[in-house]
Amino acid sequence: MLDGSNPKQGKIWKKATLTFSFDGRTMTHDFLISPIGSHNAILGIKWLEKESPEIDWSTRQLSLPIPSPETATIAQEEEVDDSPLAGIPEQYHVYAKVFGEEEFNKLPLIATMTSGLT
C-alpha cells in the first residue's frame, strides 16, 4: 500500500472527519479507514502540504511550527477621559477618589490581628 500497491488486508472502507490535537494545535482532517498493519496512521501528501511540519528524519519526529504574528501590539496610549464619572450614578461620585491614582499608589495600613487560634 505504501509502495502504490492495493492494500492486501482489505480496501478503504470509510472516511471519517476527526478533530484532534497534535503538537499543541487543534486541527480537523479527513481520515481514510483501512487496515494498515502495525501502523497507527499514514500521513498523506495533502496533510503534509497543508500543515508543512518540520521533520527530523534522524529521530523520526514531527513538529508543527507556530506562525509568528505579523504585528503585535503590546501597549498603546489612551486618550484622557474628560468626564470619567459619566455613566456612574451621582450618589457614587463621592467615592471617586478611592479609584484615583493617588489612592492607588498608597500602601494599606498594617494592622495587627489577634486570633484565638493557637
Q: Order of SSEs, N→C?
A: EEHEEH
Distance between the termini: 75 Å
Radius of gyration based on Cα positions: 31 Å
Mean pLDDT: 77
Query: β content, as a range?
Result: 15-25%
Structural class: mainly beta
Shape: elongated
Percent range for helical residues?
under 10%
**Biggest sheet statistics:** 2 strands, antiparallel
Low-confidence parts: none
Count of extended strands: 4
Count of discrete alpha- or pi-helical segments spanning 4 or more residues: 2
What order do the strands of the largest sheet run in, or round the barrel if closed?
Answer: 1-2
Features of this protein?
mainly beta; two-stranded antiparallel ribbon; Peptidase_aspartic_dom_sf; single chain; two-stranded antiparallel sheet; 118 residues
